[in-house]
């Protein structure tokens, strides 16, 4: 069955680019220029995934409003935010949503398509029996790479796809992941160290929610981060 | 509504000072009341003291022991003390103040009447006074028909005459007749018991009188030496009327004793010399003491030169009231105005007892002029002093307020003029009060500081488009050229090349945007950071080691402690700062030259220095280095050169309470960046 993707983006040229790229991947894409238009359409039928620009013309934060609306209709509906402003990232985290991710502009199509696939895969994997090759265990940490699910001490830790990728890189590099390694893992264009720092802060926070003594992600000043559990 | 200026408010507040003179006035008034009350007490005590001395001394008051209080019936004649010299002239002018007190003797006192028909035409009034050892009398006789003595008659009882009978000091009864042949001096003879013939025929001159006719009668003013009277002071006076000048028979005799008591004497009541002697010791110049008996007749008067009012005089209302109260057994003090407006006289009255009976009263009058003049003087002194102080204070406050207001206005004008309508800073330092050592000076310096920062910021803003134009045009140009080549069919260049260069240029544009947002968000990001303690030495040594790993072809060295330099703040921020400095140093340092990180610390601060070799920075650029958008990079390596790195580093340093400075090295050609941070103390 063809998956339906809704794109809400106020700039028609950018919107057309995303739509073309995704249609090229075999998805059905519905384009909307504003909140009201999108919500009217969602009243009729919900998409399988939504890509939301946060700032829609004068409607600052309009993307958040649409997201809240969709979450009310279907809490499991995957959402990808498109953001041009760094300070919007914290707000996205503040939403504490389930199946979602975000992409800072400028958007690379490869990454966007990869994220869409990941989110669909995560959704499909929910409840399915994981294959042995997807499973990984490091100390108290358990990973299901197919479903991008992680657990610490048998407690689920809800990670975004980006965070899951960063965690993977940290586990792969035994002597520490450099900022460059981590930036590559996010598969975005220019990733500043500060952005990595923010991701790590959120990673640590999520682990500490299930284990207050979690202290496995160490800072390597001037280099990057290091997964090491004592 | 226009609000009050500083000066106005100062004036308003200083008006509270006006209460001071009023308070002073109230105080002086209270003081005066207090003093007057004290004096009243004292005066009452004084009156009481005098009264106590006189207690039970009935001998000093009554005419005789046990004399009843019914004054007119006891045949007592009161002898008034005379204030003025009496001139024997037959006129009543010397007695003016006493006339009202003269006693009248009429029908009831008629001793003899020749016929019943002649009725009531004869009466007389009598006033007796004493002065300087003499007894004076004023006799006013109403007699329609005057018959003078005729020299042809030897018998004396043949004309209108006045008879005096007295008990002399040796107990003998003396009878004197005062007759005259007309107006003027009377002749005085001592006569036999029957009043008919003189004893010796000799006229007496010590007893003298002047006879003066008036309509309806005559007046006789006479003088008698007081020592003619015995200690009992007994005297009787009678007036004899003869109407028929031919017959010359005595028609009527009216005496000073009533008919049923004929043959008796009057008893004269003088002021008591003994009382006067007792009071003598109590006298004072500004006080008067007056002792009256139960009939309110003055028995002694003392002092009173400074007391203008005539306390003892019958005309004195206050004296009368007080005496009446005291005689009713009630002691009392009263104030009254003296002769001058400013004078206040104080009168105290105290009863004198004999047993439980009031036999007299003591009146003490005192002039409180000295208290009032004291008050007046104090008041004027206080008034002048407070007025002066008040004026000085108000003038001082006004001056101070005006001075402040002027300074503030000047500062405001200058501050307003320092920024134009569009918010551009025209002048970064204010002249007004720049060197003043008070709050306004601080304000001025604060504003100057503010303006300087604003100027740096507006400078930064103004330089943004200029720098951005240069930085953005390059990659845009690259992308544009790549697109042209792709559009041109690719015959000018090999396939992938234009796409790669366009991607690189896009990355460069992205980096520029990142740098700009980083600078724009650094303030807000720093505000949201949570401070914690971190070991700067460990951080820097690890940072340098890791940086060497990242840049294996460069020489990075750390000199300093491996751990133990604790600083409060954000460790990742510090890394961000180090990144900026390190990037700078890497850019300017030759490939084979060492970049040294040196960390030192004393008790309060840690000093981190990053030294690199390379070109020196010109002085003017050094000044503007931290403003942002000021880059002095000489070569283009593809990274954006917005000069924002040091600006961010400086902001981070400031957020940690530290200072970041850049200077040219003294030893070799190169640059040193010094970061000074406060230590977090002895924790951990």
Structure description:
The complex is a heterodimer of chains A (230) and B (684). Chain A is an alpha/beta fold. Chain A has helices at residues 12-23, 35-44, 62-73, 87-95, 109-125, 161-172, 179-186, 193-210, and strands spanning 4-8, 28-32, 49-53, 79-83, 100-104, 135-138, 141-144, 149-152, 155-157, 177-178, 217-220, 224-227. In chain A, strands 2-1-3-4-5 form a five-stranded parallel sheet, with helices on both faces. Chain A has a four-stranded antiparallel sheet with strand order 6-7-8-9, covered by helices on one side. By secondary structure, chain B is of the alpha+beta class. Chain B has four domains: 6-65 and 272-371, PAS domain (Beta-Lactamase); 76-269, Immunoglobulin-like (Sandwich), CATH 2.60.40.1190; 418-518; 529-678, Histidine kinase-like ATPase, C-terminal domain (Heat Shock Protein 90, 2-Layer Sandwich). Helix content of chain B is 37%, strand content 25%. Chain B is built from twelve helices and 26 strands. In chain B, a hairpin with a 2-residue loop joins strand 10 (208-214) and strand 11 (217-225). The radius of gyration of chain B is 62 Å and the shape is rod-shaped. Chains A and B meet through helix 8 of A and helix 8, helix 9 and helix 10 of B.
The gist of it:
The complex is a heterodimer of chains A (230) and B (684). Chain A has eight helices and twelve strands.
What is the name of the CATH topology of the largest domain in chain B? Immunoglobulin-like
| Separate helix tally of chain A | 8
Shape of chain A: globular
Oligomer: heterodimer
> Describe the biggest sheet of chain A?
5 strands, parallel
Which stretches of chain B are low in confidence, meaning pLDDT under 50 for 5 or more residues running? 64-73, 305-309, 634-638
- The overall pLDDT of chain A, averaged over residues, is 85
Structural class of chain B: alpha+beta
Order of adjacent strands in the largest pleated sheet of chain A: 2-1-3-4-5
H and E string of chain A? EHEHEHEHEHEEEEHEHHEE
Main β-sheet description of chain B = 14 strands, mixed
- What are the segments of chain A in which pLDDT stays under 50 over at least 5 consecutive residues? none
Distance between the termini of chain A: 48 Å
What percentage of amino acids of chain A are in beta strands? 15-25%
Portion of residues in beta strands of chain B equals: 25-35%
Helical fraction of chain B equals 25-40%
**Most residues in contact: chain pair:** A-B, 17 and 26 residues
